Amino acid sequence: MFTGLVEDIGRVDSFHHRGEAGLLTVETTLPTGDIAIGDSVAVNGACLTVTARSDRALTFDVSPESISRTTIGTLRSGNKVNLERALRLGDRLGGHIVSGHIDCAGNLIRIESSSGNNQLQFTLPPEHARYLVEKGSVTIDGISLTINSVSQDGFSVNIIPHTYSSTTLAYLRIGDRVNIETDIIGKYVERLTSPWKSGVGLSMKTLAENGFI
């Protein structure tokens, strides 16, 4: 579990394809001595497991599922990536609840600057756009952001100067692909309100059984 508040901009040292899987090594200023083998770290929003570490780098195995769902497989040496360690019990939830499970990749199609802020517009598959709501939360490359507007196949966000300079957003160019995780609450609500295989939809019983009442 993560918050979408980026702790460090890492630099990709290497990415090696191993059939449909991969091995990713990222240089970081995070205290690697405090990160154990097996710990979870969000790399551009994708939850990956640490399999090796050095004084200044972390190595991750990347599954075929992660490569197919995210932009991780396109990373090359020198690329910048957002890094966040997993949330600890008792930490402040400064962003929003982020699972690190990427829903889809989207494309940056527009950048506008106004009063020091930057408005970015992205497209994404329409089947994922239904989970976005105006003034709701979305995660872009591991960054927790507030949605300004939503369309059938896209959305826009406003980026304050601090966020722009403290993340990889400043490196994005028109046409670049990004990892997108929609708000997990919307997905659970849809699951609860959709008919089950048994034909039972939302009821007071299902709400009670799932802890909502």
Question: How would you describe this structure to a colleague?
Answer:
With 213 residues, the chain is of the alpha+beta class. It has 2 domains: 8-85, Elongation Factor Tu (Ef-tu), domain 3; 104-189, Elongation Factor Tu (Ef-tu), domain 3, CATH 2.40.30.20. 15% of the residues lie in helices and 40% in strands. A 6-stranded antiparallel barrel has the order 1-2-5-4-3-6. The protein has a 6-stranded antiparallel barrel with strand order 7-8-11-10-9-12. A hairpin with a 2-residue loop joins strand 3 (40-43) and strand 4 (46-53). The protein is globular. The two termini are 24 Å apart. The model has no long low-confidence stretch (mean pLDDT 91).
In summary, what is this structure?
The chain has five helices and twelve strands. The chain is of the alpha+beta class. The longest helix has 10 residues, at 184-193.
